[in-house]
């Protein structure tokens, strides 16, 4: 699923960036070779960062 339409970033790309160490939206954009455009996806990216980090540390989230 697309998370960022401006940069055509998918949920899988965001999760992969987080698994490689991205901890903030700007880190995700950088890892994917782009930068924020309109900012409409920032909340979704933050949610994915938190969810991916929680899953990696063995904690369940409310969405999972």
UniProtKB/TrEMBL annotation:
Top-level taxon: Bacteria
MF-aspect GO terms: 2 iron, 2 sulfur cluster binding; metal ion binding
InterPro entries per the UniProt record, alphabetical: BFD-associated_ferredoxin (IPR052371), BFD-like_2Fe2S-bd_dom (IPR007419), BFD-like_2Fe2S-bd_dom_sf (IPR041854)
Pfam families per the UniProt record, alphabetical: Fer2_BFD
Gene3D superfamilies attached to this UniProt entry: BFD-like [2Fe-2S]-binding domain
Keyword tags: 2Fe-2S, Electron transport, Iron, Iron-sulfur, Metal-binding, Transport
Metal-binding is among the record's keywords: yes
Chain ranges of the BFD-like [2Fe-2S]-binding domain: 2-50
Record keyword Transmembrane helix present: no
Family: Belongs to the Bfd family.
Protein name: Bacterioferritin-associated ferredoxin
Species name: uncultured Acetobacteraceae bacterium
Upper lineage: Bacteria, Pseudomonadati, Pseudomonadota, Alphaproteobacteria, Acetobacterales
């Amino acid at each position: 699923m697309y998370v960022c339409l401006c940069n055509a970033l998918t949920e899988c790309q965001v999760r992969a960036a987080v698994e490689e160490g991205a901890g903030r939206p700007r880190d995700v954009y950088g890892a994917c070779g782009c930068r924020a455009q309109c900012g409409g996806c920032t909340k979704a990216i933050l949610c994915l960062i938190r969810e991916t980090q929680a899953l990696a540390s063995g904690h369940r989230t409310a969405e999972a």
